[in-house]
Amino acid sequence: MAARVAGEPAAPERILSSARTEFAARGYDKASIRAIARGAEVDPALVHHYFGTKEQVFEKAVETAFSPAVAARDQALAVDLDQVGETMTRFIFRVWGNAVTREPLLAIVRSAVNNETAAAIFRRLVTRQLLSVLAGRLTAPDAELRVELAVAQLVGTAMLRYVIKVEPLASTDAEVLIARLAPVVQHHLTGADLGIAGAGRELTGTDRD
Amino acid sequence: MAARVAGEPAAPERILSSARTEFAARGYDKASIRAIARGAEVDPALVHHYFGTKEQVFEKAVETAFSPAVAARDQALAVDLDQVGETMTRFIFRVWGNAVTREPLLAIVRSAVNNETAAAIFRRLVTRQLLSVLAGRLTAPDAELRVELAVAQLVGTAMLRYVIKVEPLASTDAEVLIARLAPVVQHHLTGADLGIAGAGRELTGTDRD
Lengths: 209, 209
Known about the structure:
Number of strands of chain A: 0
InterPro entries (chains A, B): Homeodomain-like_sf, HTH-type_TetR-like_transc_reg, HTH_TetR, Tet_transcr_reg_TetR-rel_C_sf, TetR_C_16
Largest interface: A-B, 66 and 65 residues
Oligomer: homodimer
Largest sheet of chain A: none
Domain HTH tetR-type (chains A, B): 9-69
Keywords (chains A, B): DNA-binding
Radius of gyration of chain A: 20 Å
Helix content of chain A: over 70%
DNA-binding region (chains A, B): 32-51
Protein name (chains A, B): TetR family transcriptional regulator
Distance between the termini of chain A: 70 Å
């Protein structure tokens, strides 16, 4: 174990920072406590001492990567209800458009897609920290579902733009996309049931097969 | 190399089937030609002989997993333009709701999220086989972008429902979700610019909650 130099981050901070790097680089499956310890220049026992199991280290690392989302959530709680859609939409492009905040999130998505345990941790965190809190702003009985469909639009956009990189979506100016997406997100949150005017007509039409 | 029995699939079919299994189980990164050959009971050289590189085997396997999407695309090309949103939405729930069709798609998503080469193959296939063809049905100059934003809503929903499994989205009846999503998808495809009628009002209105 390396001796600490004055002004250097303490072991828990170094471990968390190393854990984020390790999970980002190798995903939950392949990341190891040993490598996290090596990156932090501590003994593996110290990782367990401070954070417990690999699952618990991951949860803590994810929470840290998730802090911009929590900040955005607080912003969404502060604006007028009819601005929540735009606030959420802007948040997605701000966070995913910046490599510094995108990479940790991408690492979480990768881990969650690859591993059931990581998916469960992610689900718990997203539900507790984001979805439930945002749903609390809405009065509709289906508030949670509304928030999730809104988030689905944004998550899908982030996937296609920043991960799969389909064109023209990947290179379209963020403001153009925000102008199109914010009303849809807002509709999910506070629109009347099927409240896209004209859409009910389309859906209930019986002239289909 | 095992001797073929009459009635058994020929080597190319066995190789493709084994490749799908291998890519699904281990992802693009970890999948190996050797394991694909073993699963197909052929020599690895035969995998290369029929399909070329690992990248090319993956592309072929993805194309096969993708065939339900191509069928749905053809259906979306056949219905009235104002039904395309619902057709696409129903397709997503049909394909992702059935483990037999979901698993190969999930394997592709996993690989694409983990590996740039796999993402590029997926992007090429999705663009050529789905997005461009569907955009061809629309007359708007921004047809490709419209299709992509529509697909983003559906992809995000599939991710949250079937991969991350957030509640209540994960256990809500598909018909309830289709009723909410189809109008949004249709709006992306054929709505006026920001054309969720009433959405402008919703966005600025204060007469809710």
